[in-house]
Amino acid sequence: MDKPASEDITADDAYIDLLSARKVLNNIYYETTRGAYNPIARQTPMDLASDDAITGHTTWALAFNNGTISPDDNRNGTELDEGIPPTTSFWKFSYEKIRKANIFLERIDNVPGDETVRNLYKAEARFLRAFYHAELIRRFGGIVIVDKVAPNYQETLNNVRVTFQESVDWVIKELDEVAPYIPKEHSRNDFGRATKGAVYATKAKLLLTAASPLFNTDNPVLPDYTEIHYYGNYNKERWKAAADAAKQVMDLGYSLWKGERNAQGEYGTNYTEIFMDIFWRVSEETVWGLYPNERNQFLEGTNNRSCNGWNWVNPTMELAETFEMLNGLLPNESGSGYDFSQPGLNRDPRFKATIQYPGAQYQAYEFEPWIGGRASDLQAQKTGFCQQKLLNGTTYPNMPGEPWRWPIMQQYRYAEILLMYAEAMNEYNGPTSEVYNAINQIRNRVGMPDLPAGLTQAQMRERIQRERRVELAFEDHRFFDVRRWRIAEETQNGYLHGYDVTKGFYTGFFTKVTVGTPRVFAKKHYLYPIARYEILLNPQMLQNPGY
Q1: Percent of the chain whose predicted confidence (pLDDT) is above 90
Q2: 457-477: per-residue pLDDT in tens?
Q3: Cα dihedral value 284, 292, 480, 501, nearest 10
Q4: What is the mean pLDDT of residues 291-310?
Q5: What is the distance of C-alpha 379 from the center of its chain?
Q6: How wide is the angle at C-alpha 438 spanned by C-alphas 435 and 442, nearest 5°?
Q7: The whole model's pTM is what?
């Protein structure tokens, strides 16, 4: 499924038998490996348009960060365009993918062959169609539900957007109906195809989004919001539905990967390497993983300048200071032992696995971002940090005699499922033992202490949000989290911070400074705009408020 396999057959031949039909299904799967849904194919994470990172390159993120996304964004930009924000184009390309699935579903019943295999293929196509609808809902609110083939793209969208609740309910119904036909796991040769865990994880993610304050509220973001844009009321039971869906994944037997056992049967203690290595293999933590669709410039774009990288992603001081010390205290808390000039000393091991910090050393390279240092580059280096997650510290682009290792794309992994469960359960029933257990599993995996006992619901909410930010950094979560939590007006407005990269190691580098221009986020930006072109073609199409 690493290429659009149906391109070598004609439309007439595509459904002669199930083997041919599978090539068409592979093409629909191929769409999930493209830039819309993962940072590796996109080459940069959505975190660039959040408070976690600043771009070291002229990218699509600038439109989000400057508050200039609009209905006039280029709807024909590809999913790999570096300079075009994926707003209006996301709408267009999503419905093109949905059309592919609908054509497949219209024809598959007439393909001769084993009925069990045919039912599996139908279930997979319906899952993919639901997944594409769910991703639209996360960005736009209520959408146009397209469950049959239309003559062309315009006919597809000559319908009105249904309410937010109708949109969510349709996707959940589809996922529930296909789940019995989807296997719990596939052979390694079929890696990337939907598993039962992928179905329930998609369900849990959508329900968690829908239960969150942006959509599940009596007090909408803007007075012009209608039931197309949010539920129209608050209902606590929506959190329970999200928790139940996450529990469906948990009950399938996934677990957190802890590395390989040594000769004594013990797990290793170098959690930094273990955490990085998660992204290079299929493990018991992988709920739905995908191979990259093609080799691109992700590795060069991500790594630092001293090892043939371009440092496109500059983590912010705000993200860096979210990682705790080994004693469980934040760097700015009294007694933490934090040293601003040695930021990696006694830190949560995920810090080094996620962020190259000043002086960080890996097997194949180190990071020296100050003037005179080998990673210094004032064109790209903005904060004194560089992304490390998804990189392998034992190699780098064009390293002599060393092949590149290409990371697996983890669409869903078990740590995310635990975080979803903990968040939903805390909102529904407060910080129960189930909530503590889910979060502590993640923390203990990397040697971090348990959360303190006796947290209030609000305190636990803050800890869960912090844990998500740390555990899932640069995996395309923070961008959506601050929106669904309805805190983007706080996190996405104003300046972000870093070290003073214009100074040398002994001449002022270790000074906290503002970086770049201030971020701009208005209430309208909680949802994406629909292209003006779509509105002109279909006057019944309702634009999102503020645009």
Answers
A1: 77
A2: 999 999 999 999 999 999 999
A3: 110
A4: 81
A5: 27
A6: 140
A7: 0.95
Question: Would you say residue 299 has pLDDT above 90?
Answer: no
Residue 112 tokens, joined: 């001769």
- Written as six digits, the tokens of 415 are 């740590």
Q: Which residues pair with 412 in a beta bridge?
A: 288
Mean pLDDT along residues 493-508: 98
pLDDT digits (tens, 9 = 90+) for 151-210: 776 676 678 999 999 999 999 999 999 999 999 998 888 999 999 999 999 999 999 999
Query: CA end-to-end span of the chain, whole Å?
Result: 38
The 3-state secondary structure of 284-344 reads CCEEEEECCCCCCCHHHHHCCHHHCCCCCEEECHHHHCCCCECCCCCCCCCCCCCCCCCCC
Which parts of 192-348 fold into alpha helices (H)?
196-211, 237-250, 271-277, 298-302, 317-320
For residue 495, the surrounding DSSP H or E stretch is: strand 494-499
Position 282 scores a pLDDT of: 82
pLDDT > 90? residue 253: yes
* Confidence band of 276 (pLDDT split at 50, 70, 90): confident
Tell me which residue has tokens 């170098």. Answer: 270
Look at residues 262, 263, 252, 242 and name the one whose alpha carbon lies nearest to residue 285. 252
Q: Cα 163 to chain center, whole Å?
A: 25
CB count in 10 Å sphere of residue 543: 15
For residue 314, the SS3 value is strand
DSSP 3-state of 10: coil
CA pair distance 304, 367, nearest whole angstrom: 7
Q: Which amino acid is at 398?
A: N
**Where residue 3 falls among pLDDT bands split at 50, 70, 90?**
very low
Q: Which two tokens stand for residue 41?
A: 């194919």
- φ/ψ of 403, rounded to 5, equals -70, 150
Beta pairing class for 355-356 and 386-387: antiparallel
What is the rounded CA–CA span in Å between residue 268 and residue 83? 42
CA distance 140 to 71: 12
- DSSP secondary-structure letter at 371? B
Q: Which among 432, 260, 436, 466 has a CA at the least distance from the CA of 350? A: 466
Which residues lie below 8 Å from residue 523, measured CB to CB, with a gap of 6+?
221, 222, 489, 546
Let me know: does 505 contact 372? Beta carbons within 8 Å: yes
155, two tokens? 């006919």
List the beta strands (DSSP E) in 56-213. Answer: none
- pLDDT at residue 156, as a whole number: 67
pLDDT number for residue 13: 83
Q: Convert the pLDDT of each residue in 76-96 to its tens digit.
A: 887 777 788 999 999 999 999
What is the dihedral angle through the alpha carbons of 395, 399, 402, 406, rounded to the nearest 10 degrees? Answer: 50
- Tally of residues, the chain: 547
